[in-house]
Amino acid sequence: MDLLEKNDHLPAVDLQRFNQQAGQPPGAYPVSWQVNGVTLDARKTVTFRQNDRGQLTPCLKPEDLLQAGVNPAVLSQAPGATSRSCPELNALLPGSTVNFDFAHQRLVMTIPQALMTHRARIMFPLRCGTKVLAPFRVTIVIQAPASVPARAAPSAITI
């Protein structure tokens, strides 16, 4: 703190904003992006704006939500899902939560499974003699037609 206080030629630095719970300024931050417990991108740059409650909320484009696994049929019916808008995640996808951990630069989102594209991930370890080689992954995507209600959509295949 001495460096900031004893330099007369520098303007005063106001750190009061960082004493508050949601005291970070709006802007673009590189974050580790997690959705439903899975890290999607370790260094994604996300723009944050301040909402009506004074908290930072991420501005995610429809392409970002599709990358996160949101069902395209659900996203096309969501009000305000445009590339230029910045709606809150819970307003866009009911039941969703978002938490921005500024100290660890981590954006953690939870999205209900009913709004997600259903995927089954299968890991197969490769064996060569007695050594186990790196596993490979098979992803199976099951997508219900838009006319089928979410509760009637098939769930992920378990193998």
Automatic annotation (TrEMBL):
> Does the keyword section mention Signal?
yes
List, for all copies, the residue spans of the domain called PapC N-terminal: 3-122
Q: Which domain of life is it from?
A: Bacteria
Q: What biological-process terms (Gene Ontology) are attached?
A: pilus assembly
Molecular function via GO: fimbrial usher porin activity
Report how it sits in the membrane: Multi-pass membrane protein
Xref: Gene3D superfamilies: 3.10.20.410
Q: Where found?
A: Cell outer membrane
Pfam name, any one: PapC_N
Q: Does the keyword Transcription apply?
A: no
State the UniProt keywords alphabetically: Cell outer membrane, Fimbrium biogenesis, Membrane, Signal, Transmembrane, Transport
Task: Give the principal location in a single coarse category.
Answer: membrane
The cellular component terms of Gene Ontology attached to this UniProt record, alphabetical and capped at eight, are: cell outer membrane
Q: Which family does it belong to?
A: Belongs to the fimbrial export usher family.
Name recorded for this polypeptide: FimD/PapC N-terminal domain-containing protein
